[in-house]
Design goal:
Elements lengths: L11 H14 L2 E4 L6 E10 L2 E11 L5 H25 L3
Antiparallel strand pairs: 1-2, 2-3
Length: about 90
């Protein structure tokens, strides 16, 4: 796999292991894998058991790190996504 930064996953087995963790935990992290100095966290938007999108927050790695990245933001994103999913599911067509 092409390497964008020194943190990019380049081995297929490692990528599949990471995808499995994302499925289990319902949250994905990007720790300077796409761009040096940028971290991100994302959670899926799921309606009727179908992933229809994702919501992500990204920013400078010196600000998005530690528990802010791994606990606080995922919790806030999940709250936002839960409300969004309800609005999508129960909105008039």
């Amino acid at each position: 796999l092409p390497q964008a930064t020194e943190n990019t996953i380049t081995e297929l087995d490692t990528l599949f292991e990471e995808i499995e963790k994302i499925r289990e935990n319902g949250v994905a992290f990007n720790r300077e894998e796409s761009a040096a100095g940028v971290n991100a966290v994302a959670v899926p938007v799921v309606v009727d058991d179908v992933v229809i999108g994702a919501v992500t927050v990204s920013g400078p790695s010196h600000r998005l790190m530690g528990s802010r990245l791994t606990e606080e933001l995922p919790d806030e994103l999940n709250e936002t996504v839960n409300e969004l999913e309800l609005n999508i599911r129960y909105s008039p067509e």
